Each structure stands twice: as structure tokens, then as C-alpha cells.
User: Fold this.
Amino acid sequence: KCAQCDYTTNYKSSLKSHMWAHMEDFKCLKCDYETNNSNSYKSHLITHKTSKCIKCPQCDYTTNNNACFKSHLLAHRNSKDLRCAQCDYATNYKSNLRSHMLIHKTSKDFKCAQCNYATKYKTSLKTHMLAHRTFKEFKCVQCAYATNNSGCLKKHVVTHKTFKDIKCSQCDFATNYKFSLKMHMLTHKTSKDFKCVECDYATNNNTCFKNHLLTHRTSKDIKC
Assistant:
């Protein structure tokens, strides 16, 4: 049990992770932002910078984040060095290749200990496990919304914002969601990275690509 609130768990690691919620060591001097994670604090400070010091020499892209800049440079590469050993898929991003490789897996290695749920994805299992919890530890300070998923809380908090501060560098598109901007940026791409090996279908959207692959399957795994 947590000594500072009603949170209870059967796992020491979960309690240890929960205790971070009561610690607020890093406080922003320009706003009310507080965190116990030094990396999150550094990333937050960048949001207060008006000038972007890192500029792409090949296009108008600018950023204050070195990791984002390195990732952006890969978009200018003509060759794709990371290749799938089982098909013609190629990419410059390790994360994309890892996600792609799961398509070739038939076994579902991540299984729920409380029900029959099984998945190929570790993150999907973590999200599923939250469904078995009755206590909701992430609560919105502006309304009665509560959840067990920190990501869901972050998305919810954005609904209280009146302005859109994430903007496209190539058009007037603006949003409060990084994922929405990422999906929007695909509309500016001319090349399509996800190509089907069984037909001519190609897309820039990984989710659409996965859904398309299902059309080639003869067996139907989901039954009434």
C-alpha cells in the first residue's frame, strides 16, 4: 500500500513506479509544469524557446531537439539501409523495422495472466492489463475524468486547451496532438514506404498497411 494515498498493488515494482507520482523535484520557472523526471523536464524547457537553433541544410525544417533532427535527416536519404530478411521491406528507421517484423510472426508471445488475451505486442499487453484494474490513479485536475493510462490522461488534458500549438512547417495545419501532425506530414510525402509483397498496394500509413495485409489472409481468426 502507498503511504500517501489509497493506491494498492501486489507488485513492489508497481508501487515503486507509483511513488514517483508523489515526487515533484523539477519545477519550471516559466509555468506551472512539475515533474520528477529530469529528461522530461529538459524536454519541457525546449517548449519555451521561441527560436529553433537546429536547422536542416536541405529543407526549411527547424527544431530544438537533437534527436528529432537526426530522425528528420533520414527522410532525405535516398537509400534505405535497414531491410527485412523475409520480404522486400526496407526503411531507415529501426523502430519501423521492428514494427514491420511483427507482421511475419504467427505466435502471440505476450499473454494475460488473468484472461485468455494474447498478443504479439508488449505494449498492447500493458494497455490490456489496465482493464483489470479497478483503481484509477491518473485524474484530471479540471474535471472528473480518471484513467489508468497516463497516455490517455495526456490526450484528455489536451481537450481543455483552446489553442493549437503544434503546427505543420509546410502548410497551415495545426493540432494539439503530435500523432495527428505525424499522420498529416505523410500527406506531404511523395514516396510510399509500406509496400505489399502480394500486390501493388503501397502507403505511408503503417496501420493502413496492416489492415490491407488482412485482405490477403484466407483464414478468419475472429469468430462469433
Q: What stands out?
A: The helical segments are 12-19, 38-46, 66-73, 94-101, 122-129, 150-158, 178-185, 206-214. DSSP finds eight helices and 14 strands in the chain.
